[in-house]
Amino acid sequence: MVVCYLGIGSNLGNRGENISLAIKKINTLKGTQIIKVSKIIETKPIGGPADQAKFLNAALKIKTTLSPTVLLKKLKKIEKELGRAKTVRYGPRTIDLDILFYADKIINRENLKIPHPKLFEREFVIKSLLEII
To answer: How far apart are CA 9 and CA 122, in angstroms?
Structure first.
């Protein structure tokens, strides 16, 4: 098993419930175990439409046997199950799940970049990560 860090956020619908459901679904992924969850914090949206609601965000520390590609696929499936629809870039969403770090891997593919490329531009991500590292 490898240690990974995930970012989670929601700014549509019942944001807290969306995050709670996503965490439960992540914890049921085969070969995956949640180790620690940061506090949930409310943040202003960065980018996207100016009139969208604030986000609730958190970070997760997990252990998994899933490869980075399979983990991403499973996270995208959870997003879809929770009603995420592709709209405007950085627009409102019921749930957003990002792989922030996957062990010590550096991956630079079109559909998967690890560490997450916007990680150091978002203070709330750093704050949440520091809490669970």
So the answer is: 12
Architecture of domain 2-132: 2-Layer Sandwich (3.30)
**What is the separation, in whole angstroms, between the first and last Cα of the chain?**
17
For CA atoms 7, 54, 109, 79, give the dihedral sign.
positive
* CA atoms of 110 and 108, how far apart (whole Å): 7
Grouping H, G, I as helix, E, B as strand and the rest as coil, residue 5 is strand
- Asked whether 41 and 16 are in contact (CB, 8 A), the reply is no
Tokens 């199950």, residue located: 81
Mean pLDDT of the chain: 91
Query: Is a pLDDT exceeding 80 seen at residue 23?
Result: yes
Tell me the two tokens of residue 77.
């499936």
Residues in the chain: 133
Rounded-to-10 torsion of CA 9, 11, 16, 20: -40
73 phi, psi to nearest 5 deg: -60, -45
Kindly list the catalytic residues.
84, 93, 96, 98
Task: Note the pTM of the prediction, 2 decimals.
Answer: 0.92
